[in-house]
Amino acid sequence: MMYIDTNAVIAYVDELDPNHDIANDLLKSLKGNKVVSKLTLVELASVYSRASLNEPLALALYSVKRVKAKIADVDFNEALTHALKLAPLLKLKTLDLLHVAICKAIGAKAFVTFDRDIVAKTNMMHKIGIEVVTKS
To answer: Is the model's pTM score more than 0.85?
Structure first.
């Protein structure tokens, strides 16, 4: 199972995004189940709202469908417990840390992202059992 970060979803659906072609190739090449979380939906709806797009939740759900991901059932208490343990190891911004913690909590083995801060932590992510999948 692969957790798809919000930035990869946006890059895939937004043809004007500088990472669109890379996201298109990368997400189409992935084998296995792709998942996001409700945190992803919140983040997507926030991005779409700030862009003054109509019906941001509907667009968020459409975006998840476009990347062929499922919305994982997440125990957010468990995810927050993971986040507290991972914070001193990863030293990421809160939303990034929460996405990684959710990835860990649901048992996903890969984290697909274009986020430079997370990519910079590839070795540490590997040590906690998560492979970082990104552009080459």
So the answer is: yes
Cα–Cα distances in angstroms (integers) from residue 91 to residues 7, 66, 86, 95, 110, in the given order? 19, 31, 8, 12, 19
Q: pLDDT for 8-22, tens place per residue?
A: 999 999 999 999 999
Q: DSSP letter string over 7-37?
A: HHHHHHH-TTSTTHHHHHHHHHH--S-EEE-
> Which residues, including other chains, have CB under 8 Å from residue 88's CB and lie 6 or more apart?
none
Sign of CA pseudo-dihedral 83, 89, 90, 93: positive
Q: Which two tokens stand for residue 85?
A: 């343990």
d(CA 131, CA 23): 17
Question: Going from the N-terminus, what domains does the chain have, and what CATH number goes with each?
Answer: 2-133 (3.40.50.1010)
Give pLDDT tens digits for 50-93: 999 999 999 999 999 999 999 999 999 999 999 999 999 999 99
